[in-house]
Amino acid sequence: MNYKTLQELVSLAQSEEKEFWEIVVKEEAISQNTQSELVFEQMRKMYQAMKRSVDQYDPNLKSPSGMSGGDGERMRRYRMNNEPIAGDFLSKIMETAIMVAESNACMKKIVAAPTAGSCGVLPAVLLVFEAEKGFREDRIIEALFVAAGIGQIIALNASISGAVGGCQAEIGSASAMSAGSVAYLEGGDMEDILHAATLALKNLLGLACDPVAGLVEVPCIKRNVSGAINAVVSAQMALAGIRSVIPPDEVIGAMAAIGREMPVCLKETGTGGLAATKTAKIIAGSLA
Question: Which residues contact 215 (CB under 8 A, 6 or more apart)?
Fold first, then answer.
């Protein structure tokens, strides 16, 4: 990979007079020793799998633990039968994030984006943007490569694993990836993309990974919703010209440092945070 930081990726794109996403496709094609067109079509298959994870959502399914299932349908009914506080557009993103994350908990097929625990964030944003704003699918695929490039660099310089960096590494990374993709879809330049991702990541620095009973359900599913909405508002700030005072790559470095300093009990062990509450212990005991 010819870039190791976000700034290097942008500089490479500028020197080759290419879009952000085109550099990511090119580098992936080189790494796979294949053609860029084939890489693009591989990503299309990922996006189609994201669509299926929503299309095949079953509101009647419950996860094996019984802790999750049906909330996506509750959100949909609320949106359909009320004037939602967040408005129709953001409400659709919220319900989609829950549907995908619940599908994961119910053992249905999802796309790790970048992880199973954060699988609802990126699909929620991109599927609703395509449906509501009429973007052609190819442009959504391009946005997915924007997200992939951001995720690659976070993984390289920090982590996308809750066991290593806490939930900031999972929901935080997914939110940053989604924010960058939204900035691209909305016509933002490379600076907008970088700062959208950075603002989103900053908002979730230090987020603990504290799954109740060690399962990717509570509080993970609802955090997918927050990550998706955070992505949209962060992208809007960036598109308005708001910039992160701390440069993007330094924010990723801070994320890595926080992950190293975070206690082990807050890194996917299911022994700290919400997982250590009285109710969580009762739930864990009942599932043992």
Answer: 63, 65, 67, 105
